[in-house]
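pinging the channel bc i need a second pair of eyes. not urgent but kinda urgent?? the chain im working w is below, pasted from the shared doc
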Amino acid sequence: MQVLFIVDSITEIKSKIDTLKFRFGDNIKFIVKAQFQSLFSTFGYKANAIYNKNLTRIIQTLVSKSNIESIVLCRASLDFNKELLDKFIASIGNGDKVVNVMPKYNGFERMCNGAYNIYVKSLFKIKDSLSSPKLQYLPALFVEELVNTHFGNKLFELNSKMVKTIYVEDKEVNNSLKVKTKFDKYAIIPIIVALLITIALIITLAFAKVNYIAILIFICLYVLDLIIAIIYQCKLYFDARFMQ
């Protein structure tokens, strides 16, 4: 079994590496985010790969260059503890099933995830599992399939017979399991468009005779702008989960 430790944070990095070595052994490869490369080297560890915004491709390339074996994927930004790792290792068992860790989502997040999965299924005919990409066990046969297809596919929904899912109640750990999307400058475009539609509506109400057709047109424009905004946010979330 090989551990791929993705260094996307330096917080308590040495303690986390020591914990992983104690639990999984010394077969660890480090995939380091470019901005942490210099700082990471001061801890006495050597990066096996560097990434910026192409993490999935880097993982696939790194894995394909060595013998295929089962993999534990872990990110440094995950605030893992003894209880989580104990449960995770126990779930691996004989190692023939994928092990996912599922964050606990609140009501608003579940609503957003529902809309997001409509987007994903419309594109790929399959849903996102919504499990965390920050801690996952992948058996060797599945790793081989991912190397031959796309490593991001590890987060799609799988047959229940092929996967074990564990759940987390600890608030801090649960929060760190979730993927956060960063600010994107293009996300403000729908807001600007909504403001322009509002200005056009005000001008129309002030200087023109308004009928139900005009009102219906403005309603349609608002709805269309909202749909485009939601689709774009879904794309950002998908990219954050599957690509970065």
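so The radius of gyration is 22 Å. and The mean pLDDT is 94. — does that match what u expected or am i reading it wrong
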